[in-house]
Amino acid sequence: MQPFVLTGDHVRLSTPTAADVERILEICQDAAIQRWTTVPRPYLREHAEGFATSIVPAGWEAGTSLVWAVRAAGDVLPGSPEPPVLGMVELRLDDAPAGARSGEVGFWAAPEARGRGLTTEAARLVVDYGLDPEGLGLARAVWRAEVGNWASRRVAWKLGMRVEGQVRGMLLHEGRLVDGWIGTLLAGDRREPDEPWPESR
């Protein structure tokens, strides 16, 4: 599959490249990203380079992991640099038969991009593309996060994900199993909150 751009009112999603290595390296020093995602610790330049120049292109080529960098909206002229990275969104696809495939959505945001709705808009663009018949035609989108990652859960909630439950030892984080939340969104579901936001949060 060839990479392509998705655009919204406030975000532009395009694949990260070698030109983004320094910015990715900078963002991934953030304590929250290191706490709640599976980025290596310590996060070194070689990790950013490998991600942008090897892991991302290989995922697109295989059609199994589609990764977009979240950037500010705006037209980019051919040959001009892309706006700086504000976050990342991935759609990881399973190998089920057509009509039964699922895609797991994951995301992170730079500190200065949080609380502005940019991650929600970016994730919605990706989920819409995945579920729509004119996109990938997936049967469902899946979201998973370590228990306690309320920022991730709020994005999933805004997308209409139904939190199906809490699973013991569902995720692997820094070599140990941790409890996780899992949510799903079927192709025919409304893409808006399906349940009240927990009052305690």
UniProtKB/TrEMBL annotation:
Cross-referenced PROSITE patterns: GNAT
Organism of this sequence: Xylanimonas allomyrinae
Domain (N-acetyltransferase) ranges: 11-192
Transmembrane domains' residue ranges: none
GO MF terms held by the record: protein N-terminal-serine acetyltransferase activity; protein-N-terminal-alanine acetyltransferase activity
Cellular compartments per GO CC: cytoplasm
SUPFAM superfamilies: Acyl-CoA N-acyltransferases (Nat) (SSF55729)
Top-rank taxon: Bacteria
Keywords assigned by UniProt, alphabetized: Transferase
Listed name of the protein: N-acetyltransferase
